[in-house]
Design brief:
Thrombin, subunit H; 2 domains; 8 helices; 20% helix; 39% strand
Length: 469
Amino acid sequence: MFRIIVFLYFLFFLKIGIAFGQVKKDIANTIVRVKSGSKISTGFFWKDGNTIVTTLHGLADKNNVSVFVHTNGTTGRWFPATIERTLMKSDLVILRAESASRYFLTEILENPPVDTDVFTVGYNGSIPNFLDKDFVIGLSQGGNLQDILPEKAKNEIRNLRFPSLTTKILYLKGSLIHGFSGSPIVDQRGRLVGVSNGGLENGASSISWCMPSSYVLELENSNELPPSSHQALNASILFSGNDEMSEDFLIFKDFKFQKMKTRTFDELSRTANYSATNELGFEYLLNSLKQGGILYDDFSYDIYTEVSSGATIAVPSGLDLFTENGRLVGRDGSAIIYIAMEEFSDINVTTNLFLNELNMITGKRGPNFGEYSWLNDDTWSYSRPFYRIDGTSIHRASFHCFVQDQYFTPLFNDYLFRVFASKRNVFLGYYVIMNRSIYLGNNGKIQYLNPEMHAKYHLAAHLTTFSFN
């Protein structure tokens, strides 16, 4: 009897899984790729085969909009489109295209409960194939756009004039990826829950959210005029969803990284306000750099995000990453970066494995090894990890290594930044070895041969995190 019950349960959930898979295929038939000027995003047919809903911030040129309607995977054709209606407060537009699709959304679900399972299907940048992405509706205190933004981001939205800071949003637990702005957020029955906004940049990472489906109904009756194209272009700093990017992925093990953006530290801080919070240890570092006369605002970084876990890494812009022995590696004349990832069941076991790996990389076995001495730098090491409300844990430590000559005089040598980050069941290790970059001054303190380069890599290590969800 027990085996029969188990078998029936198996058949029941198998049937649900097959039905849910069909819903995703049906939703995929409703989406289009939207291109306007330099921006690429996603949209979807709404109520008929000519009406398309997408985001306003995805339109770089309101007089130059086209949509790609697929008929079989990447097969399809482009159609010119015009803006028919705009709802600036919720960053939404209706486009009209002479495409006559047979597939379109008609049902909505308003006010979905917290922890509702939802998904979307969209186009990742200029990559030709669409992808699906699963989310869970999260709980956001206040429930308005202004409640999730730092003050600098609020000021930019005020200057941009859309969306409204008091707009209601649905917070998504999960990471929207570039190009998904305008894609439909749908429940497992195929009802429209919201419209992906593409997320707001939160420094190197992102905060993902969508506009509730009730705004689509309001959009249908709006008589607003669209803003200038110049305003839409200015949205690129705030919104993480639409700039054209590389189609290449960095794949190692079962993880897939994509280069999402290139930003100066000033641009990253504009949406995360790093200098005003010590949540992840930035305030102390930035104050120290200021006191040392380091002008870090113009430091430029390439930001990469792992598409499934939201793991986010930063490297100095222009530094090429490649796979080597199961790791991502980047080298220049100043430093070597090693990046490792692993799914884990026991974080302590996984951490010890990566500590052993780091010892292998550096060639040092413990604090003393031959003429080499790796010593902890207490100034930039933290005794305990930083914890974030979404479960992200980040633990940073730094070490310096000196070589002694035949008279046991310390000579300049290497410096190591080490970051261990984890979220749910994913571990991220980020190591930076600065080659022959330090020496002991007459006062017995560490001196840097190139303070600016040292600061640039130090900030890169601090930017290592997971997307907020």
